[in-house]
């Protein structure tokens, strides 16, 4: 490979991924490559913007002669620069990147460099390869006890989680707490995280590109926490980490194996608490899954 060449131009798929992110974030138009500060515009420009419209075009024989070139000390009128509309929320997206293979590689290298969970949190906080950090209020890294035997993994944080910087603290989190209590556990006895640590705009589903970029971090987080049992809350997290395509109905309730590269971890998938809030009749199946979890803990 010729190392003197510059980086390859982004592919059409990469550009589409960036446009999808900006559209989901509320950007509905592109005006200029660089922002313009209208408060810094010259006074002459502001005056020209507020001046009344010019009269209709005059007959050629009645037009005044063209003014001569301004002499020394005479400043020609300046033309007002276009003023772009402010972006939703008053923020900007100057730090947005085009997701691609290079971004995934950088995520893998950053995750691999972390030797502790605190170092991994710092890596994620400094990582700018996922555009979701531009619209999220907080990094949602973890909650609970990192030394616990059980680790629960969801897909992505929601509004309440984004505000507090903790996973599963909204209505679905309250239901999860009750489900854990029913089998004799609480948050001090489990470790909780998400595949994607930033809230997608409008609580939309993370794109495949966003998930792939964040995957090395959650994989490293599981490796560092090293639990005895993994519980996937919903099919999305199980599909990402196990590489399966089964739906949650087919996947739930049966024991599987997750390979960290160092050891095999027993894992089970169950319904996401948010789904149970919408479909309360499915709680009976989730209860069976949690009973299986309790039995596995008792068996050691």
Automatic annotation (TrEMBL):
Region named Disordered: 43-94
Biased composition, class Low complexity, residue ranges: 43-53, 63-82
Molecular-function annotations in GO: 4 iron, 4 sulfur cluster binding; metal ion binding; uracil DNA N-glycosylase activity
Catalytic activity: Hydrolyzes single-stranded DNA or mismatched double-stranded DNA and polynucleotides, releasing free uracil
SMART domains assigned: UDG (SM00986), UreE_C (SM00987)
Transmembrane stretches, start-end: none
Keywords: 4Fe-4S, DNA damage, DNA repair, Hydrolase, Iron, Iron-sulfur, Metal-binding
Keyword Methyltransferase tagged: no
Pfam family, one: UDG
Domain of life: Bacteria
EC primary class: hydrolase
Enzyme Commission number, as recorded: 3.2.2.27
Gene Ontology BP term (one): DNA repair
SUPFAM superfamilies found in the cross-reference section: Uracil-DNA glycosylase-like
Domain Uracil-DNA glycosylase-like: 141-291
Family: Belongs to the uracil-DNA glycosylase (UDG) superfamily. Type 4 (UDGa) family.
Protein name: Type-4 uracil-DNA glycosylase
Species of provenance: Polymorphum gilvum (strain LMG 25793 / CGMCC 1.9160 / SL003B-26A1)
């Amino acid at each position: 490979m010729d190392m003197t060449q510059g980086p390859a131009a982004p592919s059409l798929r990469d550009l589409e991924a960036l446009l999808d992110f900006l559209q989901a974030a509320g950007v509905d138009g592109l005006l200029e490559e660089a922002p313009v500060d209208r408060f810094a515009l010259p006074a002459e420009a502001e005056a020209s913007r507020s001046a009344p419209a010019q009269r209709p075009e005059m007959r050629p024989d009645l037009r005044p002669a063209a003014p001569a070139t301004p002499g020394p000390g005479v400043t020609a009128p300046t033309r007002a620069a276009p003023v772009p509309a402010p972006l939703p929320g008053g923020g900007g997206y100057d730090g947005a990147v085009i997701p691609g293979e290079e971004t995934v590689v950088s995520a893998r290298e950053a995750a691999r460099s972390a030797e502790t969970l605190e170092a991994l949190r710092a890596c994620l906080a400094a990582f700018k390869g996922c555009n979701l950090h531009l619209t999220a209020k907080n990094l949602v890294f973890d909650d609970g006890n990192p030394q616990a035997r059980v680790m629960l993994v969801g897909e992505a944080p929601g509004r309440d989680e984004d505000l507090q910087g903790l996973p599963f603290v909204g209505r679905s989190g309250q239901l999860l707490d009750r489900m854990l209590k029913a089998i004799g556990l609480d948050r001090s006895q489990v470790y909780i995280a998400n595949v994607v640590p930033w809230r997608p705009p409008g609580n939309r589903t993370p794109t495949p590109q966003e998930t792939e970029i964040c995957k090395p971090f959650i994989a490293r987080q599981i490796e560092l926490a090293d639990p005895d049992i993994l519980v996937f809350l919903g099919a999305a997290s199980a599909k990402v980490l196990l590489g399966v395509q089964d739906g949650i109905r087919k996947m739930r309730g049966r024991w599987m194996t997750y390979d960290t590269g160092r050891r095999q971890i027993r894992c089970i998938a169950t319904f996401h608490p948010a789904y149970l809030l919408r479909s309360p009749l499915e709680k009976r199946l989730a209860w069976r899954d949690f009973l299986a979890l309790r039995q596995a803990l008792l068996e050691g």
